[in-house]
Design goal:
The complex is a heterodimer of chains A (686) and B (718).
Chain A: E1 2-9, E2 19-25, E3 30-35, E4 40-44, E5 50-55, E6 63-69, E7 73-78, E8 82-87, E9 92-98, E10 104-109, E11 115-120, E12 125-130, E13 135-140, E14 150-153, E15 159-163, E16 167-172, E17 178-183, E18 187-188, E19 191-192, E20 198-203, E21 208-213, E22 217-222, E23 227-233, E24 239-244, E25 250-255, E26 260-267, E27 275-283, E28 290-295, E29 299-304, E30 309-313, E31 328-330, E32 338-341, E33 346-350, E34 354-359, E35 372-373, E36 380-386, E37 395-398, E38 404-408, E39 413-421, E40 424-429, E41 440-445, E42 451-456, E43 461-467, E44 470-477, E45 487-492, E46 498-503, E47 508-512, E48 517-521, E49 529-534, E50 540-545, E51 550-554, E52 559-560, H1 562-570, H2 574-577, E53 585-588, E54 595-599, E55 604-608, H3 624-628, H4 631-636, E56 641-644, E57 650-657, E58 660-665, H5 668-674
Parallel strand pairs in A: 1-58
Antiparallel strand pairs in A: 2-3, 3-4, 4-5, 6-7, 7-8, 8-9, 10-11, 11-12, 12-13, 14-15, 15-16, 16-17, 18-19, 20-21, 21-22, 22-23, 24-25, 25-26, 26-27, 28-29, 29-30, 30-31, 32-33, 33-34, 34-36, 37-38, 38-39, 39-40, 41-42, 42-43, 43-44, 45-46, 46-47, 47-48, 49-50, 50-51, 51-52, 53-54, 54-55, 55-56, ...
Chain B: E1 2-4, E2 8-10, E3 24-27, E4 33-37, E5 42-47, E6 52-58, E7 65-71, E8 78-82, E9 86-90, E10 101-104, E11 109-113, E12 121-124, E13 129-131, H1 132-137, E14 152-161, E15 164-173, E16 176-183, E17 189-194, E18 204-211, E19 215-222, E20 226-233, E21 243-245, E22 247-252, E23 264-267, E24 272-277, E25 285-291, E26 296-303, E27 312-314, E28 317-322, E29 325-333, H2 338-342, H3 362-365, H4 392-407, H5 410-422, H6 429-446, H7 453-460, H8 473-479, H9 483-492, H10 498-510, H11 513-518, H12 529-535, H13 537-546, H14 557-563, H15 569-575, H16 581-592, H17 597-604, H18 609-626, H19 642-662, H20 664-705, E30 710-717
Parallel strand pairs in B: 17-21
Antiparallel strand pairs in B: 1-29, 2-29, 3-4, 4-5, 5-6, 7-8, 8-9, 9-10, 11-12, 12-13, 14-15, 15-16, 16-17, 18-19, 19-20, 20-22, 23-24, 24-25, 25-26, 27-28, 28-29
The chains are: A mainly beta (686), B alpha+beta (718).
């Protein structure tokens, strides 16, 4: 296959933000996750846990609560006191409404989905009516003394439970008055603690209220009488989150010690109808606070300060024991944060609030497989560009020639011209950004760096012509009339004739850049697109989907290529389909048209279309021992997939030229080292 | 196992049940209280555990109740409809139904449904569904017509699925049946035609339904005498289209369709179905509980005074009208086990026919309940490799063999057995082998002189036999002192009880050397170092010294001196095996067998002292041999592991310590064992210390190989 010189980059100092809230939507099997920097991500659990959409964060908009209402509508509330609704089609914020109650700590949608309840810093519980396009304040419930940290509706919608500091209130929804006040014991292991914070409540249909609090207790209350029924002390630290299954036969809680406990309603004795709640399984998948948990019909979902989203399927609920039943840990975003200039060997790293530009080093030495070559020049940190304003960066790109750089936040678009003098680089913002270039979801430069393509959040694709120090608008492709669908992925053909774009749901659209009109649409596929690229010379569009299928579509002929049909007929190797991270980048070998390079977080693969496809009996991953053996053994099992798992977690990989690769790794140890220290637990002794 | 308990009747006001029986029995919001609506004008609230009525209400003369009273679980009020259109709502305090809340509706009501967790739903004859709240807000609202002209509603039921009320109703039009599924929260509704099978003439008589997570299972009794199950999806993939729901047979021919009062069904739980009707053989009405998974009848009860052909089940009570009295039958349904389900149907074994197999083949008899009519492909590949082989020849060979065993000679038997084993293995091979083994044992018991060792050995070597399949086999072998068969059994059986293991051990230790020489015991687990040890005794000793064992120079010298025996006795003992290779092989088989300590200990106490000493010496010898090499294993194929040796040594000493210390020979053995163990411990503690240093070195090594933040490497892809 060949020998490559690999620039192994580990200086991308990226740390994901901790997870603050998760909200599971039963109707669409989607999961909304909010992070401490205000980012909200939507995962499609049916599409192999792919992160379909994201809303960039905002410094002043930290999200403290997240909930789905009316089926598919997503609301959040945060410390700035505003309720925000997200537009899931246009990937934009629909509107925000000030609740006038100080910071919002909790949010709950009524069982029917038509009302929204918020709990505020000033102790007020406010009821909002959800109308077809907005929300409308309806009334306040009886004000409480201190902040309302958690809320839960009774499934019938007649009562609610509200967790505050030191007590839980039960309200009658009709009258808005508190019917019971249940005081929580402050003492913690005999010592009187200052305050007992009720981090979470859950109201069951039989009238039981379950509360979790900062003293490490899970307590069961009878809401009809306001009495404590049962108490479990499960942690030496806070229990911070609770989620109940729809059938109310199991629930899950997360603690500040990183443990997730599963409680189940089980019969007291076999063949007895009397049931009680029993703590059944502890899971320790986190090192830090578990800030949020969710309970889907088949899995427990948890997330916290250690930035992992963990999906733990319940084996007894999983019908078919296939690979979907395995534990999933999602750490890295399913989109690219890195772009690369091949010509100048530059890497542009995107962080939440700044960009870093690096130039790769060089070596004069040569070596054999596995050698680390001595560096003649180390990598240079050329530039660090901080954003203005509180908004997070959505996307960024550096042009292939290295002379242009662009990034966008939710409200502003920036284009810079870079000029190099020896080892220093100077930066100049290109003025007069047109008004329609307000925000971009994806930015792409053409191969010759003369054109700039911008996908903006409502759906249109803008084409700009770049020339010395200025740029001018050439054309805008509007989305098909009547639809609003944000385009998240773009690909341009190296000859500059074709542009492909893919949105969050429907198929891939191909536009002709010569005639400036839509060319064709690739037939829609059930699973979202995770990566997109157009091959040089042949203009074949390679599409990777979240179910790990890869298609090759000939743009000139408007049909799938023969190779794509063959591999669909034969099917991918079962191990290929069992990978659990999506392919995030596809590129091509400049000299060998038959080669496709693609990578996910744990492997990269060069597909050689000339070789036969592997079947399920052949080894997909060549064992490392084989590489050391003679070529005779090797030649016996050649197949099209050449896979290396040497670099991981792999965030970016690109062919710089025919013999050089760049691989950007982000070791998990380095991320953990930058997290705040976890709660110290004694391992030995007392 | 389901059971019907003693029935009792609800007395009080005699029910004016007409020929059509009761209108309905419905739950009230308090457990144990039920609303009974008779066919005429009266509603009675019963408390079942007290067997007494709590209240009774009647409508005015001339009015007639058309829809059974239900309880609104959210408010605790009762609702009924009389004269098709007049809705009445009252509560416990009200006395006169004339004076309670009244609402006259614009269309005829078919049923009012109410279940826990949702507001009551009103189903109109036209098929429209309204929530009670919405209806009361505007009683005269016009309702749309959902079902086409000519269709009439036959039966309805309301479910709660994930907090969403789902209403199912069945309509009929000129012999064709349709099921409507209405999801109330979303307003979505779908229509399914019920397929009736090839001859479309059958009439559906009665219905029952239960709900799974995504499917409604509709049980129907058809006029052809069969009880069928139809699965209807709750959320159809294509709601616009008319869908056809296909039925499958559940039970057939248990009740007659010509009964006067008809047939009633009620689903008790996933596996149990209550059927009320006249049995095929004729006679009185009979209530039977069937396990539909195993197709067995679990309980039945006759009702000589006749029933109205109606059956309700709530909680753990069945309600029916026996004669003119409302009868309550408490029932219990426990998770069905096969043994329990086999229950009431007794096997009738005729003397001439071959007996049914005693053993259940779990790999083929699973899922034989509902799916037996339409065998599906197994979802996971079974462990049995030869599923596709034809069963017939093997079965007949087994039958032939069983006949031979009854009265054939030993030789003849062996030939037949070889034939049987040579044939391809059938899926129920191991049940056949079990049958053969137990019939062989039966004959052995009957004829004390009969002992077909060859056959038994062959059977054990098939690897499918276990102790629980032929419980008497090992006891018989112990009785006959057949050590060769016992060795095979210990090797192949996964489930030898500790009592038998111990009996084997006793036999192996006590059997005479001359008899042992005659037998053909496999000695592959024994290593032949006895000779090697004798040839180079010095070397062996040296190795032990290297491992930290020093016979002299520690605190135990005094004890040694006190003994005045052979100071180098231990070394000599170590170099040669105290037992012959054949006996060693037998003992190894015991060492390999599985056991639990608590059950083994009492049996170990029964072994005589000299045998304990011998076994202990053998174990000590093995331990010394084990410690000779770095991997702590014995040479040879499948030797006992160090853990097994140590565990048995400890167990033996635990069981017999007081005896062993009194035997002089054993005492010396104990002391050398003690010294050796002590030496080993000190070696290990030293090794532990070194390990820490090694780990540090390894860490240093790793740090060196860790790559820097940036490097250029060469990678070759193959």
């Amino acid at each position: 296959m060949g020998e490559f010189r690999v620039h192994r980059v580990r200086f991308f100092n990226y740390v994901p933000s901790g997870i603050r809230c998760v909200a599971y939507n039963n109707h669409s099997n989607r999961l909304a996750v909010s992070r401490t920097d205000g980012t909200v991500e939507i995962y499609n659990l049916s599409a192999n846990y792919f992160q379909e959409k994201f809303f960039p964060g905002h410094e002043s908009r930290s999200t403290e609560a997240l909930c789905w209402a009316k089926g598919q509508r997503l609301f959040s509330g945060g410390l700035n006191g505003e309720i925000v609704e997200y537009d899931l089609q246009a990937l934009d914020i629909k509107y925000s409404v000030d609740a006038f109650g100080g910071p919002i700590w909790s949010l709950a949608a009524s069982p029917s989905g038509s009302q929204l309840l918020i709990g505020c810093e000033d102790g007020s519980v406010k009821l909002f009516q959800i109308t077809s396009d907005k929300i409308q304040f309806e009334r306040n419930f009886d004000p409480q003394k201190s902040r309302i940290l958690s809320l839960s509706w009774h499934p019938s919608g007649t009562h609610i439970a509200a967790g505050s500091i030191d007590y839980i209130s039960v309200f009658d929804v009709k009258s808005g008055s508190a019917t019971h006040k249940m005081i929580v014991d402050r003492r913690y292991m005999g010592v009187s603690k200052r305050k007992c914070v009720i981090w979470g409540v859950a109201f069951l249909s039989d009238g039981t209220v379950i509360s979790v609090d900062s003293a490490g207790k899970v307590q069961f209350w009878d809401s009809a009488t306001g009495t404590l029924v049962k108490s479990h002390l499960i942690a030496n630290a806070d229990v911070q989150s609770i989620a109940v299954s729809d059938q109310e036969d199991s629930f899950v809680v997360g603690t500040a010690e990183g443990t997730v406990f599963h409680f189940q309603l089980v019969s007291v004795a076999s063949n007895s109808t009397e049931k009680q709640w029993v703590r059944t399984k502890p899971f320790q998948h986190h090192t830090h606070d578990v800030r949020a948990v969710a309970h889907s019909p088949t899995a427990l979902i948890s997330g916290g300060t250690d930035t992992h989203l963990v999906i733990r399927p319940l084996m007894e609920k999983v019908e078919v024991k296939n690979y979907d039943a395995a534990l999933r840990k999602i750490t890295f975003p399913h989109r690219r944060l890195i772009s690369c200039s091949k010509k100048k060997q530059l890497l542009l790293f995107q962080f939440a609030h700044h960009l870093e530009l690096w130039r790769l080093g060089a070596t004069a030495a040569a070596g054999k497989n596995g050698d680390v070559l001595p560096l003649s020049k180390n990598a240079d940190h050329l530039l660090e560009l901080k954003t203005k304003g509180p908004e997070n960066i959505i996307c960024s790109s550096v042009s292939p020639c290295g002379n242009w750089m662009a990034y966008s936040t939710a409200s502003r678009f920036f284009l810079y011209r870079l000029s190099y003098e020896h080892d220093s680089v100077s930066l100049q913002r290109v003025p007069k950004t047109p008004a329609f270039l307000r925000s971009a979801l994806q930015i792409l430069f053409s191969e010759d760096s003369t054109k700039l393509f911008v996908a903006s959040s409502q759906g249109p694709l803008h084409i700009m012509q770049l020339s010395e120090g200025c740029f001018k608008h050439v054309h805008t492709f509007q989305p098909p009339s009547g639809t609003v669908e944000a385009m998240c992925l773009l690909a341009v053909s190296p000859d500059g004739h074709w542009l492909a774009s893919s949105g969050t749901s429907a198929g891939v659209h191909v536009y002709s850049l010569k005639q400036l009109k839509p060319h064709c649409t690739v037939p829609a596929y059930n699973f979202p697109v995770t990566a997109l690229a157009i091959a040089p010379n042949t203009n074949n569009l390679v599409i990777a989907h979240s179910d790990q299928q890869v298609f090759e579509y000939s743009i000139p002929e408007k049909q799938y290529t023969e190779w794509s049909r063959t591999i669909q007929k034969q099917g991918f190797h079962y191990l290929w389909l069992q990978r659990d991270t999506p392919i995030t980048h596809i590129s091509f070998h400049p000299k060998r048209p038959m080669h496709i390079l693609l990578h996910d977080a744990y492997m990269f693969c060069i597909i050689d279309k000339a070789l036969p496809l592997p079947n399920d009996k052949s080894l997909l991953y060549n064992p490392p021992s084989l590489t050391s053996e003679s070529g005779v053994v090797r030649r016996r099992t050649p197949h099209a997939f050449k896979i290396s798992k040497k670099y991981k977690p792999l965030l970016f990989m690109e062919l710089l030229d025919e013999r050089t690769l760049v691989a950007v790794e982000r070791p998990l140890d380095a991320i953990i080292a930058q997290l705040p220290p976890p709660i110290k637990k004694k391992k030995f002794g007392t | 196992m389901a059971a019907l308990e003693e029935a009792f009747t609800l007395p009080g006001v005699p029910l004016g049940a007409g020929p059509d029986g009761l209108l309905g029995v419905e739950q009230s919001d308090k457990a144990d209280q039920f609303l009974v609506t008779d066919g005429g004008r009266t509603v009675i609230l019963y408390k079942v555990s007290d067997q007494k009525p709590l209240g009774s209400w009647s409508v005015k003369q001339g009015q007639i109740i058309t829809c059974p009273a239900v309880c609104n679980f959210q408010t605790g009020e009762y609702i009924l409809v009389h004269d098709n259109k007049v809705l009445r709502i009252w509560n416990n305090e009200d006395v006169n139904l004339d004076k309670v809340f009244k609402a006259t509706l614009s269309a005829e009501v078919f049923r009012v449904h109410s279940v826990q967790g949702t507001e009551p739903l009103v189903l109109f004859t036209s098929g429209a569904v309204r929530g009670l709240e919405a209806l009361l807000a505007e009683p005269q609202q016009t309702v749309e017509t959902v079902i086409p002209e000519g269709e009439t509603i036959k039966w309805t039921k309301l479910f709660m699925v994930f907090k969403h009320p789902i209403l199912l109703f069945i309509t009929e039009k000129r012999g064709a049946y349709f099921a409507y599924v209405h999801v109330h929260t979303s307003g979505a509704s779908s229509r399914h035609a019920l397929a009736l099978g090839p001859e479309d003439t059958s009439v559906l008589h009665s219905f029952a339904a239960s709900v799974d997570r995504k499917l409604i299972s509709l049980i129907t009794f058809s006029s052809d005498g069969g009880i069928y199950e139809t699965l209807i999806p709750m959320h159809p993939s294509d709601p616009g289209k008319n869908q056809v729901a296909v039925r499958s047979l559940v039970l057939k021919g248990i009740v007659s369709d010509k009964a006067q009062s008809g047939v009633a069904l009620s689903i008790l739980d996933r596996d149990h179905l209550a059927v009320l009707g006249t049995p095929l053989s004729g006679g009185k009405d009979c209530l039977s509980v069937w396990n539909i998974k195993f197709q067995t009848m679990q309980a039945s009860k006759d009702f000589p005074q006749g029933t109205s052909g109606q059956l309700w089940s709530y909680g753990e009570h069945l309600f029916l009208l026996h004669g003119r009295l409302l009868t309550v039958i408490p029932y219990k349904c426990e998770a069905s086990s096969l043994a329990g389900a086999m229950g009431k149907l007794k096997h009738s074994v005729e003397p001439g026919t071959p007996a049914m197999s005693h053993f259940v083949n779990w790999e083929t008899s699973q899922d034989c309940g509902l799916d037996s009519q339409k065998p599906e492909l197994p979802r996971r590949t079974l462990r049995t490799k030869n599923v596709a082989v034809s069963l017939q020849p093997a079965v007949s060979a087994a039958k032939q063999l069983l006949l031979t065993i009854k009265n054939g000679t030993e030789k003849h038997m062996e030939v037949e057995l070889r034939k049987f084993l040579a044939a391809k293995q059938s899926p129920d091979f191991h049940t056949a082998v079990g049958d053969i083994a137990s019939s062989l044992l039966g004959r052995c018991k009957a004829e004390p002189s009969f002992y077909p060792r060859g056959c038994l050995t062959q059977l054990v070597q098939t690897h499918v036999l276990s102790h629980s399949l032929c419980p008497g086999l090992m006891d018989l072998a112990v009785e006959k002192a057949d050590v060769q068969l016992l060795q095979l059994c210990l090797q192949h059986f996964p489930d030898v009880p500790e009592r038998t293991t111990c009996a084997c051990l006793k036999l192996f230790l006590s059997i005479g050397e001359d008899r042992l020489q005659e037998t053909d015991v496999s000695t592959e687990s024994v290593f032949h170092c006895g000779d090697a040890g004798q040839e180079e005794p010095m070397e062996t000793q040296k190795e032990i010294l290297e491992n930290g064992f020093q016979a002299e120079g520690d605190q135990c010298r005094d004890c040694d001196r006190g003994l005045k025996g052979k100071p180098l006795g231990s070394a000599e003992e170590a170099s040669s095996s105290p037992v012959t290779p054949k006996r060693a092989a037998l003992l190894n088989a015991v060492l390999h067998s599985a056991y639990s300590e608590a059950s083994l200990l009492p049996h170990l106490k029964d072994i005589p002292a000299q045998h304990v000493t011998l076994f202990l010496r053998y174990l000590y010898f093995l331990y010394l041999k084990c410690s000779e090499n770095a991997t702590l294993t014995l040479p040879g194929t499948h030797p006992p592991s160090l853990n097994q040796i140590m565990d048995w040594t400890c167990l033996l000493l635990d069981a017999n310590f007081t005896v062993v210390v009194m035997v002089p020979e054993a005492k010396r053995l104990l002391i050398s064992l003690y010294k050796f163990v002590k030496a080993q411990i000190s070696v290990y503690s030293e090794l532990n210390k070194i390990q820490v240093s090694f780990r540090e070195l390894q860490k240093l090594n790793q740090e060196k190989t860790r790559t820097e933040l940036y490097s250029i490497e060469v990678l070759e892809l193959f």
